[in-house]
Amino acid sequence: MKKKVLLLAVVASFIIVGISGLVMASGHGSGPTWRSAISPMVDAKCAMCHGDHAPEVNEWKLLGDERRTVGPRMNTYPHFMSFVVWPETGALMRRLDDGSASGGDPGNMYQYLGSDNQERTKNLQTIKTWLGEGAWNLNRFDARGDTPGISKEQLTKIKAPY
User: Fold this and answer.
1) How many C-beta atoms surround the C-beta of residue 64 within 10 A?
2) Quick count: other Cβ atoms within 10 Å of Cβ 10?
3) Which of 109, 66, 76 has the alpha carbon at shortest distance from 91?
4) Which own/partner pairs from 9-16 qualify as long-range (CB within 8 Å, at least 24 positions apart)?
5) Hey, is 6 helix, strand or coil?
6) Angle ∠(86,16,151) on CA atoms, nearest 5
7) Are 96 and 109 in contact (CB under 8 A)?
8) How far is 67 from 55, CA to CA, in rounded Å?
9) DSSP class of 147
10) Beta bridge partners of 129
11) I need a labelling partner for 59 at 20 to 30 A (CA). Which of 8, 31, 70, 78 fits?
12) In this structure, how many other beta carbons lie within 10 angstroms of the beta carbon of residue 89?
């Protein structure tokens, strides 16, 4: 119960930050923001499959073979953050990881971050910087196998300024 209450508080804070248009959740005025860096990157690299035409994640999960032709919507701050914080905790990181966090292969969406490795590396670093120091993790909300669920400490490291 405590974990769900904490999660709701964190999600609410992200929504408030997005709606109010604050520059940084942490109070700093520098670094990438959703509006300055992430949204343009999503529009350029991801919107073909994750744009306005894409279904909400819960609707997407109900699709059969159609799921393979389009991804869930991720082109707005709340939609995008649902793949970072909740309900799809860590999905963004698992899909975009270059393999360094997992110690294995890159995530299945890493290849779309750029036309070459230099651009992919730069764009991934921009996203990591935007999320906040230590916020990049592959954990889901609940434990799965040997991987623990996301912790309060991990959640509080996410800054993701609007």
Assistant:
1) 6
2) 18
3) 109
4) 10/85, 10/86, 10/155, 10/156, 10/158, 11/81, 11/85, 11/86, 14/77, 14/78, 14/81, 14/85, 14/158, 14/160, 15/78
5) helix
6) 35
7) yes
8) 10
9) B
10) none
11) 8
12) 23
Which residues of the chain have a pLDDT value below 50?
5-6, 9, 12, 15-27
Give the number of residues written for the chain.
162
What's the token pair of residue 12?
């609410």
Can you read off the two tokens belonging to residue 67? 């799921």
Tokens of 76: 């707005």
pLDDT tens per residue, range 32-55: 999 999 999 999 999 999 999 999
What is the torsion angle, in degrees rounded to the nearest 10, for the CA atoms of residue 55, residue 59, residue 62 and residue 63? Answer: -20
* 3-class DSSP state of 80: helix
Name beta bridge partners: 147: 144
Q: What is this structure's pTM?
A: 0.80
Please report, as a single letter, which amino acid is at residue 152.
Answer: K
The residue type of 99 is G
